[in-house]
Design a protein that fits this description.
By secondary structure, the chain is of the alpha/beta class. The protein folds into two domains: 199 residues, Alanine racemase (TIM Barrel, Alpha-Beta Barrel); 127 residues, Lyase, Ornithine Decarboxylase, Chain A, domain 1 (Beta Barrel). It is 30% helix and 23% strand. It has twelve helices and 19 strands. Strands 2, 5, 6, 7, 8, 9 and 10 form a seven-stranded parallel beta sheet that branches. A hairpin with a 7-residue loop joins strand 15 and strand 16. The structure holds pyridoxal-5'-phosphate (PLP).
């Protein structure tokens, strides 16, 4: 018996798993260009954490590198290493906190470190000294997120210490907004003021600021032009999704991701024969139904059971019964559908949109969580 070669299966488009994510690279390009126009002359640091918001880390990084991105932002060390091993050469900032034993890996893979305390900065300085290398560092200031970073009200000692380092290149300084996508921008403005007062340290001491001052995520790019500084850090907006319902849509972007599957089974369901685990739904009249090979094991959240819709042949139909790990059942009423018909999970097909925001609402979450949970069992296909 021949062993199954999964690599062959997942690279050949005609025998690929019927459940797949299609990433439209032209859309990514248009979104990148639209954001760049909004913030020019500031630099662009596309944020690619969590598998590039589900779009596929390596291919998306290559694409943004080709488009002229200045920097890439990821959340964790391993994402940075994978990018370096895949041939990405532009600078990469790891946004998360650093632990002492990770520092040599940052240096060996030429990854920029976020220094979020004096102690961590000193650990970076001494590790770099020991290895005879120079670490690239961005200082993280906490102006109101209370996650990582030195509090704005005690940043002076941190900045003073940074001037003393000789094995660290302080290339940047940044902060992160907690509420930049809200209708009420008062907290974001307060954070911006706090950040600016921290930056005034450099004028007071008559020393040059680090060359890359940055703060703006998608919400701030859209609503807080004063926060542009030297570089911006767009995440969700690059993928064509707005960071909240109420955010002002001052940049026009469109979703790059389509999630689809195919009908694998057709049958008629009759009253008295409930569907799925727990038998939570049954019909009161004969109805047609199709089964689709996607489930919570792919990131199609079980919490969307009894709420979700999918698109088939230009119409929206309800998912019935509880969502299984690998399969869902769709009630198509008196309509027709055939094995192999396309089933739209996220995207637009024949004028029917199923938006990532819809899934977020059905699942009781935000679009970010829907996108980042489409897992690696789902092949990614890139179209231009
Ligand atoms: C995730 C993240 C971003 C991007 O946020 P979006 O809302 O997706 O634009 C920017 N900066 C930091 C530090 C982040 O963690």
């Amino acid at each position: 018996m021949q062993p199954i070669n999964h690599a062959t299966i997942s690279t050949s488009t005609d025998v690929i798993r019927p459940t797949l994510v299609e990433v439209n690279l032209s859309r990514l390009r248009e979104n990148f260009t639209a954001i760049k126009q909004q913030v020019t002359p500031a630099r662009m640091m596309p944020i690619l954490k969590a598998n590039a918001y589900g779009h596929g880390l390596v291919r998306v990084a290559q694409f943004f590198q080709e488009l002229g991105a200045d920097y890439i932002g990821v959340a964790v060390l391993e994402e940075g290493i994978l990018l370096r091993e895949s041939g990405i050469t532009i600078p990469i900032l790891v946004l998360g906190g650093v632990l002492g034993n990770q520092i040599p890996h940052f240096l060996n893979f030429d990854l920029t470190i976020t220094a979020s305390s004096i102690t961590k900065l000193q650990a970076i300085e001494s590790a770099a000294h020991e290895l005879g290398m120079r670490a690239k560092v961005h200082l993280k200031i906490d102006t109101g997120m209370e996650r990582i970073g030195v509090h704005y009200y005690s940043a002076e000692g941190f900045l003073t210490e940074s001037l003393r380092c000789s094995h660290v290149c302080i290339e940047g300084i940044y902060t992160h907004f907690a509420n930049a996508e809200n209708a009420d921008l008062s907290h974001a403005r307060q954070q911006l003021e706090r950040f600016e007062s921290v930056l005034s340290f450099y004028e007071k001491r008559a020393v040059e600021r680090p060359p890359l001052v940055h703060a703006a995520n998608s919400g701030a790019i859209l609503q807080l032009r004063e926060a542009t500084f030297d570089m911006v850090r767009p995440g969700i907006l690059l993928y064509g999704v707005y960071p909240s319902k109420e955010v002002q849509r001052t940049v026009n972007v469109k979703p790059a991701l389509t999630w689809k599957s195919r009908v694998v089974y057709f049958k008629v369901i009759t009253p008295g024969h409930p569907v799925g685990y727990g038998s939570t739904w049954q019909t009161d009249h004969n109805t047609r139904a199709v089964t689709v090979p996607v489930g919570y094991g792919d990131g199609y959240f079980r919490s969307m059971s009894h709420k979700a819709y999918v698109g088939i042949r230009g119409k929206r139909y309800p998912v019935v019964g509880s969502i299984s790990m690998d399969q869902i059942v769709v009630d198509i009423g008196a309509d027709s559908a055939y094995n192999n018909d396309d089933v739209l999970l996220i995207g637009e097909q024949d004028g029917v949109p199923i938006r990532v925001e819809d899934l977020a609402e059905w699942a009781g979450t935000i679009p970010y969580e829907i996108l980042t949970n489409i897992n690696t069992r789902v092949p990614r296909l890139y179209v231009d």
